[in-house]
Amino acid sequence: MTEITKSLSNRNAFSRRSALAALFASVVTVISFTVPHQALAEDKTAIKVGIISGEDEDVWRVVKAEAAKQGLEIETVVFNDYTQPNEALERGEIDANAFQHQPYLDNQIKTQGYHITPVGYTGLWPIGLYSKKHAKVEALPEAAVIGVPNDPSNEGRALRVLADAGLIKLKDGTGILATVADVVENPKKFEIKELDAGIVGRSVEDLDAAVVNTDWALKSGLSADNRIAQEPVADNPYRNFIAVKTGNENEGWVKKLVAAYQNETVKAEFDRVYKGTGVAAY
């Protein structure tokens, strides 16, 4: 072999070794950058949770303390209506939210295309029919004006309360998303007035009666003394839950979050705050 041939051979061998070394280094670099990111996602230690303003803020102060014992820091982000928390979760502005039941989420997914998954139940607030003018259902007069929430899931729920109380009859086979159009019998010719969920409770003074979500009933100053009918608690599909972006439901921080809520310490605060109008649902 000539000196020139040996030189070319050595140069080619060096080039191959250099290329392999560079490839190995790039693989190590990719691994070194990938693994910490995955670990970070699984071991997140600080999260943001969207909740609705009001009494639930007191409950979540206790949840935050329980989560801290597990090394999880929770920042609550407070919203004033039901439309914002899911949008914020979908955009990644918060890591979880806790304010809704399955029928509401199903409708949000259908209409907005959200990718959101429930991970743990919180509480149930039985919806009721309230009145400051009439002491019982039978006292509601002809053509009484009855308010109901106008969002799809809660309107159907409210109409079911009226149907169970014998005030109206709904079309056979009507599901949880019933509307006023599904009312097939209304013997006392009630005027069913659709109002925003946050307004219907505050409008009781101007109505004969109104079906109001319990959390809004509390905010509106309504009490059990004003409630003349209520949905049953058994087998209720309207349990509220903590929800996260789909794909995160098995993360370690999610399990810590759920455990921070589902315990006797939080239940005691829940019972104190809601005074029996809400019940723990886990």
TrEMBL record:
Topology relative to the lipid bilayer, per the entry, is:
Lipid-anchor
The record's keywords, sorted A to Z, are: Lipoprotein, Membrane, Palmitate, Signal
Signal peptide location in the record?
1-41
Task: State where the protein is found.
Answer: Membrane
Query: Which InterPro entries does the UniProt record give?
Result: Lipoprotein_NlpA (IPR004872)
**Among the entry's GO cellular component annotations, what is one?**
membrane
Predominant cellular place of this UniProt entry's protein: membrane
Q: Which family does it belong to?
A: Belongs to the nlpA lipoprotein family.
* PANTHER family in alphabetical order: D-METHIONINE-BINDING LIPOPROTEIN METQ (PTHR30429), D-METHIONINE-BINDING LIPOPROTEIN METQ-RELATED (PTHR30429:SF1)
Q: What is this protein called?
A: Lipoprotein
Native species of this protein?
Aminobacter anthyllidis
